[in-house]
Amino acid sequence: MRDGAKKMKEYRVVHYINQFFAGIGGEDKAGIEPRFEDIPVGFGKQIEDISDGRLRIVRTIICGDNFAAENLDEFEKTVLPWIKEVDADLLFAGPAFAAGRYGAACATLCDRAVTSLGITAVSGMHEANPGVDIAKRTTFVLQTGDSARKIGTVLPELVRFSLRLLDGVEIGSPEEEGYHPRGVRVNFRREERGSKRAVTMLLKKLRDEPFETELPMPVYDLVPPAPPVKDLERSLIAIGTEGGIVPRGNPDRIEAHNASKWCIYSLEGLDNLLSGDFEVAHGGYDPVPSNNDPDRVLPLDGMRRLEKAGRFRKLLEKYFVTVGNVTAVKSAERYGREMAAMLHKEGVDGVVMTST
Hints:
The structure is a single chain. By secondary structure, this protein is α/β, with parallel strands linked by helices. The protein has two domains: 3-177, Rossmann fold (3-Layer(aba) Sandwich), CATH 3.40.50; 232-354, no CATH class. It has eleven helices and twelve strands. It has helices at 44-50, 65-70, 72-84, 100-117, 131-135, 151-166, 174-177, 194-206, 288-292, 300-308, 329-345; strands spanning 11-18, 35-37, 55-63, 90-97, 120-125, 140-143, 236-241, 245-247, 263-266, 278-280, 314-321, 350-354.
C-alpha cells in the first residue's frame, strides 16, 4: 500500500466470475453450479493490488455460463444471499467483454444487487454484449474491447472507477468517464443557452462539418419486406423458428439465453413434432405447453396439411432454429445472413419463421 493511501477507506468486495476466469475450464465446465470461495480467485488478487488494498475481495462467486443462462431464477436466488451475508460494499462483476452469456449473468446479478440489496455494482462489457442493456439503468458498465486479451488495461480502469464511485466522487458523462450511456438525464448548466447551441449544430450540419448531438437518437435498420411468392403452388417452402424447438436432449447445446449458434435438423418422415422427441431450449417463455406439443412453436403439422392439400409444391425436409432470448443484435444479424444463404442454396422460394 502506498503511503498516500494508508488512511483511505477500504471496501469489502464480492467478485463474480465465470468458470473460465476461475481457472476451472471452458465450455466443458460451463454447466457448473454456483459456488463461492472467501478469497480472491483468478485475477481477483490483481484487483486488490491495483487498488493498493482498498478493494478487499471478501468473497468470489463462481458459476458456469450455461448454468447461469439456463437457470436464471435459481442463479439469482442462490447467489444474492451470498452477497448479502458478507456485508459487501461493492459487487465487481466480470469484466465480461463480448461474452454474451457471461455478460448477461454479470448484468442480471449487478441489477439485482443494486435494486434488491442496495449495494454498488460495476462491470465492464463490449457494446455488443446483451448484458449492457440489462444492467445499464442501475449499474455503471464501463466500455471494453471485445476480447479478454485487453484485461490488462481494462482492470485498472474498472478499479479506479469503482474507487471513485465508492468514495462519492462526482461521476461525469459517459464520454468523459468511458461507461455505456445509461439513458439517465442529469441537469447541469452550460455556458451557452440551448437555442444558440442548436443553431450552431444546424449550421455545422448544413456545411457538412463534424458536430456532436446532445441527444443521440436510436438508429434502427430499415429492412425492406421480401417480395411476395409469385407462384405458391409451385414453390418450395421452408419453416424455422427462433423459439428454440430442438431434438430431445438439445444435441448441439443451443443456449437458452444469448444463443451463440443456430442449427439445422431433419424433418424427413415426420408429419408432426412429438412430445418427447422434441423439446424447448428457449429460456424466455414457459416451456411446458410447447414441450407437450412442439408444433405450437414450429407448426410442422399445419405445414404438412397444407403441403398435402397442394397449397405449395413441397416443404423443405429440414428446419433451422436458434434462440432469440436476449441474443445480441450483431449475432442475430449474422445468423440471418447465414440462414438466408442456406435457404437460397436449397432453392427455397418462401419461408415461414415463427417467434414466441
